[in-house]
Amino acid sequence: MSWEEDFRNRYPCPCGKGEYEEIHYSDDWGRSETRYVMLCPSCKEKYVYDHTVIHGHPGDEIERGWVLKSVLEAEHKHRKSVEEKAKTLYFKLWEKKFKSLRTKKQMWEILTLNGKYYPSLGTFYKHTKGYTQEEMTKYIDGFFNYHDLKRVFKVCGVNPDWKYLGANKEEIQRFQSDNLDIQKKHEFIKTKQKGVSFPYSEAKPSEVTDVYWIYAVRKKGKYPKPTPRSGKWLIFVNPENVNEVWVKINKAVEEGKLGDSAKVSTAKPNPLAGGSKARVICVYTYDWTDEKDVKRIREELRRLGITNKIPYKADEDTLKGKYRITGHGRISKYYE
């Protein structure tokens, strides 16, 4: 099946003197992809688009974007050096952790620290179905890489020799922290999504297939800024009712009756929706530990007709990839 262009947008290039194009494609299988074309002659020589996802999850990915070629080359060399030095120090210990294990489940428990890291148990079984012992070893060892060093250090139970590894301050913080600036990450994702969805702010969710989300933003009154404990009420709606419900939520957010913002899923297929056809509306609050505010917003939603029980999920859990479809359970902070 061939890819067909859906639409394209132009944005300023890094030097500010030209532009680049963001082109969206889809095919008959329901797949979609975005390609980037630099139009500025000067930036075309110096920059390359880096598709590395720096924040988010499927449907909410934030890619790094345009980066100097020289910077990417230097970073690749540095990361390769850190990875090789880590293997010199800890790879034998890593192998020892898995060597005596007899079952796949035991391997999964060590590899993911009992489900804290990817993959879920079901995905692990799927990936390794029919594997020989040699293939299992190769699969496990594949997780000993630069981007998974935080996991590696925890599995091995070591306090890394940062000086020998040559890790910089940002890397040390990232490899050590379990909660690296959750609030900034999530606000960055929301800001990116709002910008992409802005042209569709007046559209009906059921008719939009170019973006995953449409946002509503508070226009009246003040509301506290999000903390690292921000979260949202999740309202699941039948596709035939989503437009009607979204009109009510949108109006309430703009009038300052709820939190600072809300978003609704569109007709664009989302990998995290699984087999469900339901649309989801997220109504954000600034801090899930402020029970009074969380329940105030829940009561307002009841007045808008949302009377069935709905879950409340922390943004931190979303950023950590915790979804029912990925095998996680009991992730709701509230359910009422």
Explain how this protein is built.
The protein has 336 residues and is an alpha+beta fold. The chain has 3 domains: 4-69, no CATH class; 71-176, no CATH class; 182-335, RNA Cap, Translation Initiation Factor Eif4e. It is built from 12 helices and 11 strands. A hairpin with a 6-residue loop joins strand 4 (47-55) and strand 5 (62-68). It is globular.
Descriptive terms for the model:
single chain; 336 residues; alpha+beta; RNA Cap, Translation Initiation Factor Eif4e; 11 strands; 21% strand
In short, what is this structure?
By secondary structure, the chain is of the alpha+beta class. It folds into three domains: 4-69, no CATH class; 71-176, no CATH class; 182-335, RNA Cap, Translation Initiation Factor Eif4e, CATH 3.30.760.10.
CATH architecture of the largest domain: 2-Layer Sandwich
Secondary-structure element order, N to C: EEEHEEHHHHHHHHEEHEEHEHE
* Shape assignment: globular
Low-confidence stretches: 322-329
Q: Report the span from N to C terminus.
A: 46 Å
Strand order of the largest sheet: 6-8-9-7-10-11
Helix content, binned percent? 25-40%
How many separate domains make up the residues? 3
Q: What's the rounded overall pLDDT mean? A: 85
Give the CATH H-level superfamily of the largest domain: RNA Cap, Translation Initiation Factor Eif4e
CATH fold category name of the largest domain = RNA Cap, Translation Initiation Factor Eif4e
Counting DSSP H or I runs of 4 or more residues, the number of helices is 12
The total of beta strands comes to 11
Q: What composes the largest sheet?
A: 6 strands, antiparallel
